[in-house]
Amino acid sequence: MAVTIPEHGLPGHLVDFVGALRRHGVAVGPGETVDAAEVVGALDLLRRRELREGLAAALLRRSGQREVFDTLFDLYFPPALGVGAQEIEVPRAATDDGSEGPVDVDALRDLLADLLLAGDEEGLRELARAAVDALGTAGATGTGVQGVNGQPGWSAYQALRLMSPETLLARILDAMRQDGDPTDDFTDEVRRREIRDRIARFRKMVQDEVRRRTAEQRGREQVAKTAVPKQAEQVEFLSAYAEQLAQLRRTVHPLARRLASRLAVRRKHARRGQLDMRRTLRRSMSTGGVPMKPAYRTRRPGRPELVILCDVSGSVAGFSHFTLLLVQALREQFSKVRVFAFVEKTDEVTHLFEPGAELSGVMQRVLREADLTAFDGHSDYGHALGSFAEFWGEAITSKTSLLILGDARTNYRDPNLAVVRRLVGQARHAHWLNPEPRRQWGTGDSAAHRYADVLPMHECRTAGQLADVVEALLPV
Amino acid sequence: MKATQSPLFGSVDEVAERLEGVGYLASTAVATTVYLADRLGKPLLVEGPAGVGKTELAKAVAAATGSGLVRLQCYEGIDEARALYEWNHAKQLLRITAGQGHESWDATRDDVFSEEFLLPRPLLTAIRRDDPTVLLIDEMDKADVEVEGLLLEVLSDYQVSIPEMGTVTATRKPFALLTSNSTRELSEALKRRCLFLHLDFPDPDLERKIVLTRVPELPQALADALVRTVRVLRAMELRKVPSVAETIDWGRTLLALGLDTLDDDAVRQTLGVVLKHQSDQVKASAELRLN
Ligand SMILES: Nc1ncnc2c1ncn2[C@@H]1O[C@H](COP(=O)(O)OP(=O)(O)O)[C@@H](O)[C@H]1O
Ligand SMILES: [Mg+2]
Predict the structure, then answer these.
(1) Residue B164 maps to which CATH number?
(2) What's the ipTM?
(3) Taking Cα atoms as reference points, which of A474, A313, A307, A476 lies closest to residue A394?
(4) Contact status of B262 with chain A (Cβ, < 8 Å)
(5) pLDDT at A370 over 90
(6) Could you tell me which CATH class the domain A302-473 is placed in?
(7) Which residues in chain B touch residue A32, judged by CB atoms under 8 angstroms apart?
(8) Strand, helix or coil at A351?
(9) Ligand 1 centre from B75 Cα, in Å?
């Protein structure tokens, strides 16, 4: 399908598009913009899917940026204007005068069920398009829902409520069972998940279509402002949803590797390795065979050791999932990792983080099995850090990196700075990651500033910030 | 470098057709980016999970265009001597000893730093070839960060300077394809040098076709059931989700065992082919009601 060529010319339009990407957190440099222009020149603009892939190849640098890109691409390079060419006819109720009546919702649902059963992506997309249009202009039978003041009104909520695709699941499953495939529990479960997935995709098609039509009406910038999804890196840990958490998980893992390799690089630079005869000889070639400049073998970077102390109290509940992800990812990167959790007291929980352990249950186990509370279950940093130093203080050696995760909210209790100072002195490096916005540090019962005097504290609310922390931690 | 190097492909469709001709089924994204990488003369960085066909793509481009494939397999600790070139020290020492007494040092030196004593490694090899070449730099993320600097130099000017010999410039730009499983992020500078392709699992239609090209004896209906089941497995939170390679293996296994429907019994017998970790098998069996 062709793209609609904008009225003010392609180059200007491309620049607008790049601007929109930048506003939504995709860093596009001038070099990439030039590449994008070359891409536009090399492709056939009548082929929209190729243009989409080509521009993505020139403008994006990480897979996490793709969702934002796709949403904006649809707004800036819409496939067609208005409802477009219709292949699918939305069923309507009869009217006396023969004009287009309101949508017959039952018949529409039958059509939807057939397409979902067949898994016909193109058909479903067409239906989403036609249904949004018909419901927005003519409303549905019996509901009288329609655009206000004769203006059509596009609403994903309304369209999805009327069609309610979820309620078609049982019916579609029955139809599949009658197709003569195996009827065991397993096959049934696979089908159920498949249909659920198709329904979820259809919902998204409806939402995309509404966004596109609204953009035509209200201008794309207006729509882009509210409707473009956040990238995983920008989602705040304290308020992430399940799906975003899954994305975060994919983001955090490589970050942990990077953090580990940064720490390793530091070690590599720190010491000189053994004499490398082969390279020394090679260098000596240019000095008549006299070895003037000895070459040293660089050490294979040893895997550093890590101790993680994490606050798992209620005030950082949203953060703790991130904590778990990070801890687990780090575990795989360091030769020796010990993990401690604290609320009022500290306890070791390393054994709960076996590589590959199922994360969903770990937090409950930490809270249930570890000995973390004494009186009221509110965090007591001073006491917790003190008990750590007392019982596990020897875990921190000159080879250890110490990482503390928490909001530094002490419930107005003694922060025990002396003990923190001692631990930091013992460790090779020490860092504190705080999930609270920096401007809240030091307010109320937060001892963030006081701890930040003792060791570097980093605001770490999103995976993007974590990436920055990792970048800045140890310049290579 | 010749400014007018004739492109390998005439259109995006032609890319797809010719790749299919050598058994590689390209999505729109793949065909488009391969076409552009060739047209714009930029390296293509292909990133994605293991087993989605990254390495295979480079091989297919080489086969489809009759180019030679030069492969640099990266690993932790790979260095210039392994990636670019190295002098054959043993041979040089022999030569020096042989020349002692009846030859000036200058003459000896000029001789031992000549072609005869040079051991070209993949990057230099690719740049010196006169024939069409696909340069595959595989699993870039495994190499240390320092190697990226080296690559950046080579991929910017397509030239290599050998202090003892001078600069070698490509007479023909190779088609360069880098792959990464994203176990770490590559540097921004290197990424900017490349066109970027995130290769993910193929959509069901494409995957079915891939399976059927690789296992042509597999009945259509079975291929369909396989692909659908694998998609469900991929949607689960597993330690290692099955890739295209596993779907293909699964098809082969079912065929070998003479199983012609993918019911619970067949899956129980063969789940180990698609899920490599014991814990994933346990989890999938429980969630998909195999127990
Ligand atoms: N698009 C495709 N067309 C044909 N075969 C494919 C395709 N994608 C993957 N494969 C198959 O999957 C296997 C794994 O691919 P490979 O290139 O080794 O994966 P990666 O390098 O991404 O880890 C290959 O042996 C190949 O047979
Ligand atoms: Mg590979």
Answers:
(1) 3.40.50.300
(2) 0.92
(3) A307
(4) yes
(5) no
(6) alpha beta
(7) 192
(8) helix
(9) 20
